[in-house]
Amino acid sequence: MKQFAKYVSFNILGMLGISCYILADTYFIAQWLGADGITALNLVIPVYNFINGLALMLGMGGCTRYMLHRSCQQEKQANQIFTQVLYLWLFLGILLVLTGVFFSDNIVILLGADEQTFKMSLIYLKMLLICSPLFMLNQILLCFIRNDNAPGLAMKAMLIGSFSNILLDYLFIYRFNMGMFGAVLATCCSPVISMIILLPFFLKKQNHFKFVKTRFQLQQSCYILSLGGASFVTEFSNGIVILIFNLLMLKLAGNTGVASYGIIANISLVITSIWTGIAQGVQPLLSEAYGQKKSLALFLKSACFVVIGLFILIYSFIFLFANPIAEIFNQEQNILLQNYAVQGLKYYFSGAVFAGLNIVIIMLFAVIEKPLQSNSISLLRGFILIIPCAFLFASLFQVKGLWLAYPVTECLSFIIGIYLLRKNACQ
Predict the structure, then answer these.
(1) 391, burial (CB in 10 Å: exposed 0-12, middle 13-18, buried 19+)
(2) Strand ranges for 261-408 from DSSP E
(3) pTM
(4) Which of 409, 401, 270 is nearest to 347 (CA)?
């Protein structure tokens, strides 16, 4: 339990730091560029989710396989896994950079930008895609270092990277008057600073994972991607939810509605990062126990209790202070935006506990090498259920219905997840 407390607490703090990348941008953009700035940023967030999802797929999928080899004292095979992850990172990184250079305009239009938000969205998106290899490599290294018995270093790097983003946001947006470009430049500097913090770990040769000479192995790489697929779907589905909600909100309430959802979406990133922090924190312990054929029940139950306890604290705070939370991002004191945001905070986050439990269950299935079950739950909550629920509830109850689609989806996904968990436990 000491190990559990150490890994989970360190990782929650670290993931909170990473989530502040976009949250800090939202705050400073709200103060400097107003509702249009929040709308432009919110239109681009799905791309950030996609990039982070790819990084988690490589990092978590690779680490799950890496830890299974290490727990069996198979150092050579473990290092080959790390090398395959780097090959995949290089390939995907090049694709993202080329996409940013040549297709950013088309993507911004597809995301729903209009004349008011196109230019700001384009600036943020293009820079984000060009710098995407930095975000991905940082996330991959953090995953492996956490699994290399150094969760404290991973937390330190994530927090320092995040705090530097907040400081740079202030300097670039306020002091240097760089607007949206300053916001994204600050965000792109953060993973670089994080990796600088990690550098001594490699220079002092404290790391057990190493790049080794080996050819690219398609079968091994596909298996890594399948194990990390649930992490990708979980993260990317957040982006899909934001995209669908943006499009529906544009029809229901225009740019003001999208701006209000921008507040909800950014706070959701922070809460999701807490759940991801719990899942990632317990993953090395689950992987090691599974590799040594020990019981996983204690770690699983502990993670679920932590999710429930934190949800009670978080939702109580959001419910009681919904109005002042919305006011922080409503610099123009737009009454309609304020009303939408307060209503959204209270309804939307009522389902956060199910989201947290779903993420833990998804991680468990990935660890015990059941990618079909983990990917199924991820797809249910990220695509199969949320999209029809959003359209149905929005048509029936307008904006209020849109807020309710998220908790209903997470609750249904949780019920199915428990069923799959019980079914596999009996096998």
Answers:
(1) middle
(2) none
(3) 0.76
(4) 401
